[in-house]
Amino acid sequence: MIHLCSLNACLLILSNIYTSLMLFFSSSIISPALPCILCEESQLKKKEEKRLRRVKKVVQGRKQCWQVLLWSWSSVEESLI
User: Which domain of life is it from (predicted)?
Assistant: First the structure.
């Protein structure tokens, strides 16, 4: 009888350890933290890429404006001569 009680106690302790470990590894504090950090980094990277694309478009637009202005000015100069 004593032998069976100690076996039950051992199984209960192992069950509690298993449950504790499962809760620890599946808790929302531990596991989602890393994906959230990676998600934030990828979102920041995407925002930075979007910003750079906008800046490139603005720069290209300004270059085109200057080209048009220079072309217009040269046309005006030619017509004056």
Answer: Eukaryota
